[in-house]
Design a protein that fits this description.
Largest sheet: 8 strands, mixed
Strand content: 25-35%
Number of strands: 10
Bound molecules: NADP nicotinamide-adenine-dinucleotide phosphate
Helix content: 10-25%
Shape: globular
Radius of gyration: 15 Å
CATH superfamily: Dihydrofolate Reductase, subunit A
Strand order of the largest sheet: 5-4-3-6-1-7-10-9
Amino acid sequence: MVLLKGVSKPIYCIVAVAQNGVIGSQGRLPWHIPEDLTWFMDQTEGGVMIEGPNCYQELGKALPGRGTVVVSRNEQKSFPGAERAKNLNDAIALAQSLPWTGPIWITGGERIYAEGLPHCTKLYITRIHRDFMGDRYFPHDWSRHFTKKVWSKDGCEKDLSYTFEIWEK
Ligand SMILES: NC(=O)c1ccc[n+]([C@@H]2O[C@H](COP(=O)([O-])OP(=O)(O)OC[C@H]3O[C@@H](n4cnc5c(N)ncnc54)[C@H](OP(=O)(O)O)[C@@H]3O)[C@@H](O)[C@H]2O)c1
């Protein structure tokens, strides 16, 4: 599909967060929630993901059916199947220019979320109702940027409950 000149893509953030703010542990997600993975794949399909190198490494590839821009200052690192940018602003400009018609998605990790959140007009957050041990966190003050919850749906995986929520500014 062809992008209309002058029409920019919206920028959204998507994340799953434990009750204590943890998003990752030793380069991995600390939980296994198939419904959340499906949610992530469905929402981001047709758009452009902006992620850090550790996230790219965790996924092991650029996901099919969407664009990917990896933000890295290290020119030695390669990201087959993805575009690269040396900072978040360049990544957003590049994502705007790619021929995917869906939104731009800020998909982590820790610093990309912290820098990207002020640019986002919507937050897709899966709130996991348990604390987890971890070493990566979502900005604790995210609700400063998003004040209106516009949608939510509860889910459960074995004895782990969670809620999908969409927030707007
Ligand atoms: N729960 C969730 O929804 C979710 C989502 C995503 C990730 N995660 C978790 O988070 C962890 C991975 O994230 P992470 O925080 O470790 O790593 P990351 O953001 O994927 O990568 C960190 C690297 O990104 C580059 N970078 C970050 N910010 C930059 C900037 N502003 N400008 C240029 N380069 C920048 C730097 O690498 P260079 O040295 O190459 O410049 C930095 O070392 C994993 O545990 C993963 O499971 C969880």
